[in-house]
Amino acid sequence: MTQALSFNRPLPEHYSLDAYKKLFADFQEFQARAFHSQPINTLVKARARFVDEVLLELWQHCELSKDKGISLIAVGGYGRGELHPFSDIDLMLLVDKRPGGSQQDAISRFITLLWDLRLEVGHSVRTYKETISLGKDDITIATNLLEMRLLTGNKTLFNELQQAVMADNFWSSQAFFQAKRHEQQQRHAQYHGTAYNLEPNLKANPGGLRDIQTIGWVAKKHFNTRTMRELVAYQYLTEDEYQELMECEAYLWQMRFALHLEAGRNENRILFDYQPAAAERLGFGADGKASVERMMKRFFRTVQRVSELNEMLLQHFEGSILNSQQKVKVSQLDDYFELHGHLIKASDNAVFARRDNLLRLFWHIANNSNITGVHSTTIRLIRQVRRRLMGDLQDYEACRQLFLTLLRHPRGMDKAITLMHRYGILAAYLPQWRNIEGQMQFDLFHAYTVDEHTHRLLKNLYKYSLPEHESEFPLCTDIVKKMEKPELLYLAGIFHDIAKGRGGDHSELGAMDVREFAKLHKLSDFDSKLIAWLVEHHLLMSVTAQRRDIHDPQVVAEFAEKIRDETRLNYLYCLTLADIRATNDNLWNDWKGSLLRELFLATQKAFRRGLEKPMDLRDLIRENQAEALPLLIKQTFIESEILQLWSRIKADYFARYSPKQIVWHCEHILRHKNTDEPLVLVSKAAIKGGTQVFVYTKDQPGLFARMVAALDSKKVNIFDAQIMTNKDGYAMDTFVVLEQNGEAVTSPSRQQSIKKALEQFIAGKPDFSRQKPRLSRQMRQFTVPPKVVFLPGNTKHRTMLEMAALDTPGLLYDIGQVFQQCGVNIHAAKITTIGERAEDFFLISNEQDDALTPEQQSQLKRSLIEQLSQQTEG
C-alpha cells in the first residue's frame, strides 16, 4: 500500500465492494485532514498513486493480468499522475486485437467494479490502429495520448503506441500547435474572453488550469518532454517563469481541491454555494464576504498572471520555434521600438531603463493601427522591469506627459488601454489601480471585478467615437463628437470606482483621488473640478432615472439643479450609460436606456427654458390634452364624450402619459361597454424599451396584489407601475414589463396569455394563494436585511416609501398584501432590481387619500419588515 502521507491502510485481501468503498472514504477523509498541512502537489500525486494501486488490485481480481494482449493505460490528467478528490479517472485499454468473449467479459467486469465504487471513470477499449486513426482526427484524443502512462500490461504494445504518438506523421508540432491554439480561442470565447465572472470556472476560464496545460502540451509535443521543468533547459521557459507557473498552478490546485471537498463531486466552478466554506478551508478566514473577497482577489490576480504567461509563451513558441525560418518584415518606429510584422518589439533589452518608454510603447500602439500586439520578447521585458519598479510611473514627468498624450489620442482607448491593463502598466502608473485589481464585488449585480468593470467602461466610452457604433447610441455619439476634451470623460471613467474596497463612500474618496491626479498632472482648475464632480456624482443619473418619477417636472427640476449646466449633463449621461453597460451584460435593456434618455432630454429642455422658468405641471397637462383630443376625434369619437370621460380622470394622469398613450387608453375605454369586466391592453410593440400593460377596472381591495400575482405567474419582470384611481372609483393602472432576458414581450401568444391571466386574477380566478417561494441556488447565498424608509414627498397629500429587500419570487405580491392589510393606497411604483437586491419606491396614501400619519408609517414599516423577513427564512 502507498506510504504517501502515512496512509498505511492495506488493501482488502479479498474483494468486497463495501470494504473498498470504506477504503476510499477513509482515504478521502485522510486527505481532507491533510489539506492544511501538506503541499497540494503531494496530495494530488498521492491520490493518483492510491488509485493506481486499487486499479492494479482490481485488474488482478478480474484476471486481466493473465492476458498478455492488453495494456491498462492512464491518460489525460490521470496520465500525468494528478488526481483531485473527484477528478475523472481517464483510462484506455489498449488491445492487440478486438476483444473476444472471455476478454470482453473480463473488461466489462473490471469497468463495472469501478462504477460500483462510484468512481468517475472515462474509458475506451481500442486497438493500436484504432487509436492512431482516432487520434489523427481528434485533437482531444491526441492530447490525452500525449500524456499516457502505463499502469500494467503489455509494455511493448504501449511503447509502440507512445513512439507513434510523438512522430510527426501523427501530429506535427505546427499542426498540433495550431489546433490547440484554436481550441483555446474557442474555449475563451465561451467565457466571453474573461475569467472575471461571478462564478468563474478555474479549469476552463481564461487564465485557468487549461491555459497552463496548453503551454505544456504544445511544448511537450515539440520537445518530447515529460515535465514542465524540462522546458527551462530548452529556453522555452526561464527559471523565474517556470517557478511562477508552478506557483499559479499550486494555488489553482488548492482551490480546486477545496471545491471538490466542499461540493462532494467534480466541481470546477467557484459557485456562490461553496465560496465561503472554500475560503475558510483555504485559510482566508471565516468572516463571510470579506474572506471570499480575499480568496477571489488572489484568484483573479493568479489567472491574470497565467493569461499573460500563456500569451507570451505561445507567441514565443509560434514565432521563435515553429516559424524560425520565416522572414518577418521589420521596420524601425523610433530609437527604441521596431515593428516585427504586426507586433511591436523593443530594439534592445535596455529600452525600459528609460521608464517613459513603458508609456511610449503604448503610444505607438495607439498611433499605428497596423500594430496588433506586443512581441513575446518585449512582454518578457515588461514583466521583468515591472518587478523592479521603485515607486509609480506617474512620479516621472516624462511618463505623465505621455499618459496625458495617450488619453488625448483618438485611439488611446482602443488596443492601447487594453494592453496597458493586461500587462500591468496601468497598475504600475496609478497606485490606486493596484488596489482594485482582482477586487471582487460580492453580489449579483456586478459581474466583473472592479478593474475589469472599469476597463469595460472605458471601452464603452471609446465606442461613442467609432462610426460603426453610431447607430447603437446616436445621442452619445453626437455628444462626444462635440466634446472639446473627451479625455476628461475617460479620466472620470478611470477614477469612478477606483476607491472601492477601501471603506467609506467610494464616490467621495475617488473624487479626492482624481483631484490629486489633476494637481500632479497640472490640469486646469475647471477640468479638475469637472472630473471630480463626475466621479463624486457618477451614480446620480442612474439612481434618479430608475428610482424617481422622471415624468414629474419637479423631479426633473431638482435633478437639473444638482447638475447645474449642460456640460455636466452631457458628460454624466455618457458616463452613466457606459457604466451601466459595463456592470453586467445581462442587466442592460432598452427600458433602462429609454429612462436615461428621457431624463437627459427633459433636463436639457429645462436648461434651455431657463431653470427660473421650469415647466409647470398644469402646462404639461394642457399640452398633452390639446395634442390628444384631435387624435381621438379622428377615431370617430365626439368631443363631448371624450371630455366627459376626461372629467372622471384625475389631472395627474395627463401629466404622466404621452398624448399617444392617452389616445391608446381612452380609445379602448370609450369602446369598452361592459364596465363590470376589466379592460386589459398589452402593447403590441415596445414602448420606450418595454411592454406596457394597461388595466382599467373597478377598484377593489387587493387589486395591486392580484395584478402583480398575475404578472408573476407569467414569468415577466415588472420595472415600473403607475397606479391611479379615478374620481368614479375605476382604476387606471399601467405596468412596464420585460421578459426574463430583458427584452420586450413581442410574441402575440405571450401577450394574449398575459392579458388573459390579468383578467382571471382580477376576477378572483384562479385561487392564487401561494406556497412559500423557493429561492434560487445563487440567491440563497445572499442576505439583504429588509429596509423601509419614508421620504419627503413632492405633495403634502402623498407619502414616498423606499424599500430594500432580497429580490425573492413574489416580492411585489407580498408588499401588495401588506399595503391592503394596512389600508394603504398605491399611486405609483418604481421597481428596481440590482442583482440580488430589490430597491422599490412607492407613492402611497392612507384610506382618507392623504399622507400617512407617523403612527400609520410606523405600523406599515413593522408589517413590511415582518412579512419580508418571513419570506426569506429557510
UniProtKB/TrEMBL annotation:
<dbReference type="InterPro" id="IPR002912">
    <property type="entry name" value="ACT_dom"/>
</dbReference>
<feature type="domain" description="HD">
    <location>
        <begin position="450"/>
        <end position="572"/>
    </location>
</feature>
<dbReference type="Pfam" id="PF08335">
    <property type="entry name" value="GlnD_UR_UTase"/>
</dbReference>
<keyword id="KW-0548">Nucleotidyltransferase</keyword>
<feature type="domain" description="ACT">
    <location>
        <begin position="692"/>
        <end position="778"/>
    </location>
</feature>
<feature type="region of interest" description="Uridylyl-removing">
    <location>
        <begin position="333"/>
        <end position="691"/>
    </location>
</feature>
<keyword id="KW-0378">Hydrolase</keyword>
<comment type="similarity">
    <text>Belongs to the GlnD family.</text>
</comment>
<keyword id="KW-0808">Transferase</keyword>
<dbReference type="Pfam" id="PF01909">
    <property type="entry name" value="NTP_transf_2"/>
</dbReference>
<feature type="domain" description="ACT">
    <location>
        <begin position="800"/>
        <end position="874"/>
    </location>
</feature>
<dbReference type="InterPro" id="IPR002934">
    <property type="entry name" value="Polymerase_NTP_transf_dom"/>
</dbReference>
<keyword id="KW-0511">Multifunctional enzyme</keyword>
<dbReference type="InterPro" id="IPR003607">
    <property type="entry name" value="HD/PDEase_dom"/>
</dbReference>
<keyword id="KW-0460">Magnesium</keyword>
<dbReference type="InterPro" id="IPR006674">
    <property type="entry name" value="HD_domain"/>
</dbReference>
<dbReference type="GO" id="GO:0016779">
    <property type="term" value="F:nucleotidyltransferase activity"/>
</dbReference>
<protein>
    <recommendedName>
        <fullName>Bifunctional uridylyltransferase/uridylyl-removing enzyme</fullName>
        <ecNumber>2.7.7.59</ecNumber>
        <ecNumber>3.1.4.-</ecNumber>
    </recommendedName>
</protein>
<keyword id="KW-0677">Repeat</keyword>
<comment type="function">
    <text>Modifies, by uridylylation and deuridylylation, the PII regulatory proteins (GlnB and homologs), in response to the nitrogen status of the cell that GlnD senses through the glutamine level. Under low glutamine levels, catalyzes the conversion of the PII proteins and UTP to PII-UMP and PPi, while under higher glutamine levels, GlnD hydrolyzes PII-UMP to PII and UMP (deuridylylation). Thus, controls uridylylation state and activity of the PII proteins, and plays an important role in the regulation of nitrogen metabolism.</text>
</comment>
<dbReference type="InterPro" id="IPR013546">
    <property type="entry name" value="PII_UdlTrfase/GS_AdlTrfase"/>
</dbReference>
<dbReference type="Pfam" id="PF01966">
    <property type="entry name" value="HD"/>
</dbReference>
<dbReference type="InterPro" id="IPR043519">
    <property type="entry name" value="NT_sf"/>
</dbReference>
<dbReference type="InterPro" id="IPR045865">
    <property type="entry name" value="ACT-like_dom_sf"/>
</dbReference>
<feature type="region of interest" description="Uridylyltransferase">
    <location>
        <begin position="1"/>
        <end position="332"/>
    </location>
</feature>
<dbReference type="InterPro" id="IPR010043">
    <property type="entry name" value="UTase/UR"/>
</dbReference>
